[in-house]
Design goal:
The protein has nine helices and two strands, in the order αααααααββαα. It starts with 7 loop residues before the first helix and ends with a helix. It is elongated, with a radius of gyration of 20 Å. It has a two-stranded antiparallel ribbon. It is mostly helical and 222 residues long. It has one domain.
C-alpha cells in the first residue's frame, strides 16, 4: 500500500535533516580532514562517525517518508549512540590513545575515564544531561527499539474494544496511528543528536589547528 504524504511540518523537518547531513559533510571536508592535512587516530573515528551519520540520516528520512515509526525510532537510537560514543574521546586522559584502542577493536564501553568510570552509553548520557536535558528520557525510551522488547508489542496493537474487551493487532510496515506530533518529536531529536555530533567534530577540527604551546595552555586551563 502506498504511503500517504507526511504533513508540511514533517516534510520541512525532513529537508532540514538532509541539510544537516550536508553541513556535517562540509565540516569534515573543510575543517576536520581537508586535503593534505595530517591524519591522527581520532580522525579515523571522526570519519567513521560522519559516515555512520550520513548513512543513518538517509535511512531515517526514508523510514519517515514510509511512515515506519518502529524502524525510525531504532535508527534514532543508533544515531544518538554515534554522537555519544564519539564524544567519549573528550572524557579520557589521552584521546589519541583512546582512538587507537578503538581502531584495534577495543569496545568503547570497556574503556574508562580518568576517574575509572567505564564509558558505557548510560554513563555518557549522564555526562551530557545538563546541556541536553532531553537525552536521558529519550535514550531510555528508545533502548527498547534496538532489541526485541515489549515496545514492539505496544506498536503491534492497533486498537482496543471497550465493549467486548477485544484487542486488534496490525502487522504492517506502516505506522499510521502516530500523530504528527510523534513524527515531529523523533525528527527534532534526530537533529539535536546531529548538533551534538557536529559540535564535537568541529571541536576536534579546531583542536588540530592549535600549536603545541596553545594546546598545552588549553590543557592547563590558561
Amino acid at each position: 500500500m502506498a504511503a500517504p504524504a507526511q504533513s508540511e511540518a514533517v516534510e520541512s523537518l525532513l529537508l532540514k535533516l538532509e541539510a544537516d547531513a550536508e553541513r556535517v559533510r562540509r565540516v569534515m571536508i573543510d575543517i576536520v580532514v581537508p586535503a593534505g592535512s595530517p591524519m591522527f587516530p581520532l580522525d579515523f573515528l571522526a570519519l567513521a562517525a560522519a559516515k555512520r551519520h550520513a548513512s543513518t540520516t538517509s535511512a531515517f528520512v526514508a523510514m519517515a517518508i514510509a511512515w515506519n515509526m518502529v524502524i525510525a525510532r531504532a535508527l534514532l537510537r543508533m544515531h544518538i549512540d554515534t554522537s555519544l560514543r564519539f564524544s567519549a574521546a573528550w572524557h579520557v586522559a589521552e584521546p589519541q590513545a583512546f582512538a587507537t584502542a578503538v581502531l584495534k577493536g577495543e569496545r568503547i564501553d570497556r574503556l574508562r575515564t580518568p576517574t575509572g568510570a567505564r564509558l558505557t552509553d548510560s554513563h555518557l548520557v549522564q555526562l551530557h544531561k545538563d546541556k541536553h536535558p532531553w537525552l536521558p528520557a529519550v535514550y531510555e525510551r528508545l533502548s527498547g527499539y534496538v532489541h526485541f522488547s515489549g515496545a514492539h508489542i505496544v506498536d503491534a496493537i492497533d486498537g482496543l474494544g471497550d465493549e467486548d474487551q477485544t484487542i486488534q493487532f496490525l502487522v504492517a510496515d506502516q505506522d499510521l496511528k502516530f500523530p504528527e506530533s510523534s513524527w515531529i518529536e523523533v525528527l527534532e531529536c534526530f537533529r539535536e543528536a546531529t548538533s551534538l555530533l557536529a559540535m564535537f567534530l568541529q571541536g576536534w577540527g579546531a583542536t588540530k589547528r592549535l600549536s603545541d604551546a596553545e594546546l598545552e595552555a588549553l590543557r592547563s586551563g590558561a
